[in-house]
């Protein structure tokens, strides 16, 4: 394999782009919490930056601070997701004018988001400026468009190098999400430890500026085939073809199976997005009373767990494939290597069951007032839970013809953008009422729905003999 194939392309954007956006979001959330804590008289210095947090009981000031933070966060989330729905135009723009331009818009939008908050907190400007910051971030695509376009860029440069090389580049891209998050949150934690949250937010801004420079001066649209269609017609055709792909008749319950797998994907993503919307607040308050530094460090651990889980699933896939090949060399049916569907069944089922265990640990960690149990809830998903999404996507392809591979991702992306926004808002709304119990109620509920839909899909696949 030639060395030029390994030249970095959009991997640095994936590595730093989403991670820096998450760091910025978490720092803003904690700064908002501190603002409302001060407004409610909950700003004491008894426990470092945990304020007057009591490991045993909630106080009136603490409860009010949580409610105010959640309510304001919900308005910001509504502003972001309403605007993000329009950002689907950016996918069509990337096809016509290049991935580079759209990636620059995404990172620039995230930079404006961070910079507006830096100015707002430094000069004590009105909170309503945060609505503007979220609106700009939503209109420029946010994390979802950045990832979608960045992975499209990886597909561009690997289109003439075979499916194995493409799978390898995309797998490396998936790993960049986790390891990038771990590295950036570790740096964020150090800035919080030795300085403060505002300095950490400034640091995020500076790194986003450097990422913009990388896109402007180094990243190219190499090997991309530009669309000759107008942006509007390209967008209309994309979703028209996508809906056709999901509504057309497929033998052996293929259409039903496809929708069931999309449901598993959506519920799994909703669980992750919704949970992250309130996890910081859950950790900062009774009975845990974690400091700013602990909250940031826990997020870096979450990102590391994601990366290790993806890596673990890749290694298991390689091991399963090698066993199947060795067995087939003797002309016998493999007793060791599993078929693709069987392998995916065991991995995905295990991942969902592990997520259910994690949800129980989140819920009971509050009941037992145990930070160790909370850490366990964060770490447990390393056992294959991160592999659910990529393996579900690989299953979709099995029920589509070759000319539908691009169209089949359009509908899930659209549904996911709407449902994840609703999930985040639902988590925050319920958290305002029941606080910690939201993890047990909603997360376990989404996990159980994912498992039920997946088992029904597997039953239909087995029944049809498409195994």
Content of β-strand: under 5%
What is the CATH-assigned architecture of the largest domain?
Up-down Bundle
Query: For the report, how would you describe the main beta sheet?
Result: none
* Average predicted local confidence, pLDDT: 84
| Low-pLDDT residue spans | 1-5, 328-335
Total count of helical runs of at least 4 residues: 16
Tell me the domain tally: 2
Q: Overview of this structure, please?
A:
The chain starts with 10 loop residues before the first helix and ends with a helix. It is an all-alpha fold. It folds into two domains: 1-218, Growth Hormone, Chain: A (Up-down Bundle); 232-467, Up-down Bundle (Growth Hormone, Chain: A), CATH 1.20.1250.20. Mean pLDDT is 84; it is low at 1-5 and 328-335. Helix 10 (254-284) runs parallel beside helix 15 (410-434). The chain contains 16 helices and no strands. Helix content is 75%, strand content 0%.
SSE blueprint and pairings:
Layout lengths: L10 H29 L20 H25 L4 H9 L1 H24 L6 H11 L2 H17 L4 H32 L2 H21 L13 H17 L6 H31 L7 H37 L11 H28 L3 H9 L8 H10 L12 H25 L3 H27 L3
Helix pairs in contact: 1-2, 1-4, 1-6, 1-7, 1-8, 2-5, 2-15, 3-4, 3-9, 4-5, 4-6, 4-8, 6-7, 7-8, 7-11, 10-14, 10-15, 10-16, 12-13, 12-14, 12-16
